[in-house]
Write a structure and sequence with these properties.
The protein is α/β, with parallel strands linked by helices. Helices cover 41% and strands 23% of the residues. The chain has ten helices and ten strands. It has helices at residues 42-49, 71-75, 93-103, 108-121, 137-149, 167-182, 194-200, 218-225, 232-240, 243-257, and strands spanning 4-13, 16-26, 31-35, 57-62, 65-66, 78-81, 155-159, 186-190, 203-208, 211-216. Strands 6-7-8-3-9-10 form a six-stranded mixed β-sheet, sandwiched between helices. A four-stranded antiparallel β-sheet has the order 2-1-4-5. A hairpin with a 2-residue loop joins strand 4 (57-62) and strand 5 (65-66). The termini are far apart.
Length: 259
């Protein structure tokens, strides 16, 4: 069974089609990277998969459950951390985690064990009883990740998860994601840091103007690019039309030389 399945999924806003007939499957235990320029449709697609935005057409299943026909059952299986997490700033970090645990009906023992584990991993134990409003952006990102992991989700959706994290925390997160996937959790990640996607992801999808224009492992993407040495950055820029911007940069460089 596919962990995630999108069938002819589209999203329109009036006459504007933000996402166009996407068909995509992600396997259980896969770390899948979803890449694209700003405005390409990445976040819109994630919001539809997590039940935050209703598709204009098509169907989305997670763990075999239709997200819009059985939303509560589907959301019990998933976790979502956006690039700008919405948190309750007047709660402490621990109070926020207790709130999340109450939604998923975790027992006191389960909460204590899991919260201790995740707070320790992200080095938040000493700050857990401070108000979230006093946290840095990176700390807010980390407490959101702790909350997302509390109920042992089967699928984790992460939108730009390393934004705001210090290098050590970013490395911790990357190692954690790989370990989770090796243990059968599915991770669906968007990022503009292409090196992360190239190093981590089992497969990568590239979206442009609401359409998936490339899909596969790095080996498969290199084959599509007819270059076995291509980096993901090279492939991405070739596919998403970097030529015009490069020409402008070259013209600016020439103008500088002539001054």
């Amino acid at each position: 069974m596919h962990s995630i399945s999108l069938s002819n999924v589209s999203k329109s806003y009036g006459s504007y089609k933000a996402v166009k007939n996407i068909n995509l499957t992600v396997e259980t235990g896969e770390l899948f990277g979803f890449l694209g320029p700003n405005g390409a449709g990445k976040t819109t697609t994630i919001k539809m998969m997590t039940g935050l935005l209703e598709p204009s057409s098509g169907s989305i299943n997670v763990c075999g459950i239709n997200v819009w026909e059985s939303p509560v059952e589907a959301k019990q299986k998933i976790a979502y951390v956006p690039d700008q997490p919405t948190l309750y700033l007047k709660l402490t970090g621990m109070e926020y985690l207790q709130f999340v645990a109450s939604i998923f009906k975790l027992s006191a023992d389960e909460f204590e064990k899991r919260s201790t584990k995740w707070l320790h991993l992200f080095q938040l134990e000493e700050r857990a009883h401070e108000l979230i409003e006093g946290y840095s952006h990176g700390m807010k990102q980390k407490i959101a990740l702790c909350g997302a992991l509390l109920h042992n989700p089967e699928i984790i959706f992460l939108d730009e998860p390393t934004v705001g994290l210090d290098p050590k925390s970013a490395r911790t997160l990357k190692n954690l994601l790989r370990t989770l996937c090796d243990n059968g959790v599915t991770v669906f990640i968007t990022t503009h840091i292409l090196e992360i996607a190239e190093q981590l992801c089992d497969r990568i999808g590239i979206i442009l103007d609401g359409e998936v224009i490339a899909l596969g492992s790095m080996k498969e993407l290199r084959k599509q690019a007819n270059n076995n040495q291509s980096s993901l950055e090279d492939i991405f820029l070739d596919l998403t039309g970097n030529e015009e911007q490069q020409n402008i940069i070259e013209e600016l460089a020439k103008a500088g030389e002539n001054q």
